Amino acid sequence: MTTSPFSIPNGAIKKNLKRIVDHWVVVSLMLSGAGTLFGFAILSTYLNAIGLPGLFPSALDTKAALVPWMLLVALLLIAYIFVLTMNSMIFASGATLFNKQPYVQTKMVRLLAIPVLVGISVQMSTIVGDIHPLLTILASALAEIVVFFVLMKSERFRVAIHVVGFMARPEEGMKWQARFGALVPLFIVVFSTVLSAVFPVQLVLSTYPTPTDIESSLKLAGMAIFVSSLALVPAVIFFAFGENLLAKIRNTLAVLMIMTVAMLTMAPRTFPAMVYRTAYLMGLRDTTITSYLITDTYSVDYFDSDWGKVSIDKDRPVVRGFPLLSLGDLLILCPAYLVTTELAEWPARSPACLVTDTKTAKRVPEKQAKKRWAKAQMYEV
After folding, report:
1. Is the domain of 140 the same as that of 211?
2. 346 to each of 45, 69, 321, 334, 381, how far by Cα in Å?
3. What is the pLDDT of the chain when averaged over all its residues?
4. Does the residue 323 lie in any domain?
5. Higher-scoring residue by pLDDT: 126, 297
6. Which range of residues forms the domain containing residue 135?
């Protein structure tokens, strides 16, 4: 009796769970270490993105406050991976048509990858070439149809298609519906896979500049084709490698992690944008301009015109600004005029911000702040 590649070996799950329980100390240390590194990566990425990497050592004291931030970034990364693998999941749905033919399924996955890659190449080339979207869709569909006609010359491909159709309609085994009916759902899967390849490409290449010459257009088209092809790898790995279901899942997850790192490397601004956005969602970064009483040793003379009019309360300056980062005791307070600053602009503008802590920069209630500012304007000369 042959074992299906989608079966789980007897006792495999129990054996793996027992390994985890027996080595729970090692597993806990590994997970704790991975979580710590992930937190450090988030903090380092944010500080580098805003141009203040030198604050990393002092920011490490706030690592306990990183946990909610880490969870939100992790959820955003999962959503990012979902978009990256959308076309891979659609392609995998087509391969499931051959689940009852495990002896040819791997071969069919490899053959079906040909029309997908041809369609993606045509689609990405026409998109970069700024061709009308309708013509782009028609051109990629025509290319896929041509490849399907060529594949039908292969006897193994024809037989596999016939078997799928015959299983669906055994009473019509000799009719064209049984012989070629499976081509229609397969073409729909391939066509949908090619169309959905736009999403991972747009996600990864959105930070790249618009090409202005033929050389840059060809380079961007090649990058788009590479990204689309890379997004298909998890589906191919799942069906083509692994002797059982657990091995297939393990291999696919490993490739998925490598692919995500590769995609983030090709789009270096993506992860900083995630971290920057989630900092706002977590309230670690705010765009609300309020007044702060600085109780540290700073005097009014320390604040230049960038901070606007600085009032005095009991010999202490009161400034208006917003927190670029408020994590634990660490506070990076920026002048009000920087509130509309984009992420890419922060490295040049963050030196104007005040690095302090939440103990020495007290937020003044807005009602009292308005009274102080009104009083300051009353005596203005």
Report:
1. yes
2. 13, 20, 15, 11, 35
3. 80
4. yes
5. 126
6. 91-240
